Amino acid sequence: MMKNAFKILPALLLIFVSFSCQENEEPENLLDQVGFEGTLPDGSNFGTTDIRSSNGTGIFGINFTYQGNHDLAIRSIEKGWTLSIEIPKKDFPNNPPIGGSIPMQVVFDYFNIHYPYEDVLGVFMSEKEKAKREVSYSSFDQFRVLLANDIKYYFYQPEYFYQPKGGKVRVLAVNEGMIKDLGGNNIRKIEVTIEFDLPMKASDASIEILEGNLKGVGRFRYREDFYQGEFEKFD
What percent of the chain clears pLDDT 70, i.e. is strictly above it? Predict the structure, then answer.
């Protein structure tokens, strides 16, 4: 049996302002920038300055059957945290561009055909409508959430618990718009606001605070051109 798994997971970033709403109401003061406001599992905060965003892709293959997904993330350069979400996988044709020699633009063009903007929007809109219809609904089984410490190189994830604990992951708002690329061209974007109350556990047992809840609201951005410049700049 041949197994082939390949994943491209560029880090992502976004910035976020304060927000409050009741669980059964349409939110009124949505975040006007990407980022996160709330409490991290170790009790600290994400930071509010020098917040950066990015979105990436992943391709996975087993026995010549392939799937792909999108990742959206926000990074705090000040605090050294990256918060990312992975949306559901979609079946791909049997000849995706994989391998270290494949230019990233080829991969991005492939995704814009086989898992395009419209499908990404559809995922978020569907989860938003489910959350709106049912107060107790959670997208926990739809989105994979990861909080990475970029300074000490460890992660918080729900999957590290021996017994799954579930948690709240609710899409509150989805906004479409345009953003300029470096050449001044208009690029389509989606910004999604998500509420979290999610038990998470650290990957390293030596971490002082081994587990806690990711609790708050984040805003993430998907760009159709997959621009990585913000995330890759560390000065």
Answer: 84
By CB atoms closer than 10 A (0-12, 13-18, 19+), residue 103 is exposed
DSSP of 161-200, one letter per residue? Answer: SSS----EEEEEEEEEEEEE-TTS-EEEEEEEEEEEEEEE
User: Which residue in this structure is represented by tokens 């994830």?
Assistant: 157
Q: Can you tell me which residue has the tokens 């026995």?
A: 63
pLDDT of residue 23 exceeding 50, the answer is no
* pLDDT score at 106: 94
SS3 of 82, please? strand
Q: Contact, 139 vs 171, CB < 8 A? A: yes
Cα gap 160→154, rounded to integer Å: 12
In this prediction, residue 191 carries a pLDDT of 96
> Residue 73: pLDDT above 90?
yes
**Residue pair 89/30 in contact by the 8 Å Cβ criterion:** no
The pair of structure tokens assigned to 76 is 């705090």
| Per-residue pLDDT tens digits for 197-216 | 999 999 999 999 999 999 99
Token pair in block for residue 21: 């709403």
24 contacts: CB under 8 Å, gap ≥ 6: 135
Residue 144 β-bridge partners: 86
* pLDDT(130) > 80: yes
Q: What secondary structure, in 3-state letters, does 88-110 show?
A: CCEEECCCCCCCCCCCHHHHHHH
